[in-house]
Amino acid sequence: MTGPIRLGVNIDHVATVRNARGSGYPDPVRAALLAAEVGAQGITAHLREDRRHITDADIARLSAELPVPLNLEMAATEEMLGIALRHRPHAACIVPEKREERTTEGGLDAAGQFDYLASMVAALRDAGIRVSLFIEPEAAQIDAAVRLGAPVVELHTGRYAELDEAAREVELKRLADAAALAAKNGIEVHAGHGLTFDNVVPIAAIPQVRELNIGHFLIGEAIFDGLAPVVARMRALMDAAR
Ligand SMILES: CC(=O)[C@@H](O)[C@H](O)COP(=O)(O)O
Ligand SMILES: NCC(=O)COP(=O)(O)O
């Protein structure tokens, strides 16, 4: 037995569809409330600097209306720090961001940006926000997270998700080793990016992983089956893996 694992549903891409037409629907907050009702223990939203999906108004509404913890994904900028301090989400996950990227490429270089991140992590922590660092499964990054005093790391599973089943084993071991190292150092371990029904089980089976944040696949699948059954199925796969 490995203990329970939480599912955080990322609702960014409900906002992507809304923003495609500049309409008021579909509403990501409505999706978040439904996901929470059917088993999501948290909601993740990434307020990108270019506001391509989630907007400032979405963050304000999520902060006010959610019955479960909000995990705000944010770039390490002064603007985002100000927004986080204003809304005080349960958690803030610092992610690397490049304006031109299609999605988050690689993890935060916590080791390379140590001095810059130190004051940001401290400011978030002082405000009572649980800080998470979205990192590659590498010992140097975990060591930096420990020295920065981050209570949580989220391991980037994007590379794992892109590999075919035969090639996945090496990356899976990197993730499992990183999870064990982080937990040994007292850091809570989360994971996410690119997870689907087909690839989630080995990640959910890593004993130290306490939370998965999953979005793009769930929102896409919901077009066919509806959000509630899709969240329920992901929950069931995660639970069966423990
Ligand atoms: C950091 C991360 O993994 C998530 O934010 C997720 O990728 C959704 O945002 P994008 O699809 O815009 O990258
Ligand atoms: N941090 C990962 C996340 O929130 C969801 O990523 P994805 O499932 O949308 O790729």
UniProtKB/TrEMBL annotation:
Organism: Sphingomonas molluscorum
Residues at the site labelled Transition state stabilizer: E154
Pathway: Cofactor biosynthesis; pyridoxine 5'-phosphate biosynthesis; pyridoxine 5'-phosphate from D-erythrose 4-phosphate: step 5/5
Gene that encodes the chain: pdxJ
NCBIfam families named among the record's database cross-references: pdxJ, PRK05265.1-2, PRK05265.1-3, PRK05265.1-5
Domain of life: Bacteria
Reactions accelerated catalytically: 3-amino-2-oxopropyl phosphate + 1-deoxy-D-xylulose 5-phosphate = pyridoxine 5'-phosphate + phosphate + 2 H2O + H(+)
EC main group: transferase
Gene3D superfamilies: Aldolase class I (3.20.20.70)
Active-site residues from the entry: H46, E73, H193
Subcellular location: Cytoplasm
Positions of 1-deoxy-D-xylulose 5-phosphate binding: D12, H13, R48, H53, T103
Function: Catalyzes the complicated ring closure reaction between the two acyclic compounds 1-deoxy-D-xylulose-5-phosphate (DXP) and 3-amino-2-oxopropyl phosphate (1-amino-acetone-3-phosphate or AAP) to form pyridoxine 5'-phosphate (PNP) and inorganic phosphate.
UniProt entry keywords in alphabetical sequence: Cytoplasm, Pyridoxine biosynthesis, Transferase
Subunit: Homooctamer; tetramer of dimers.
GO molecular function: pyridoxine 5'-phosphate synthase activity
Family annotation (CDD domains): PNPsynthase
Name this protein carries in UniProt: Pyridoxine 5'-phosphate synthase
EC number: 2.6.99.2
SUPFAM superfamilies: Pyridoxine 5'-phosphate synthase
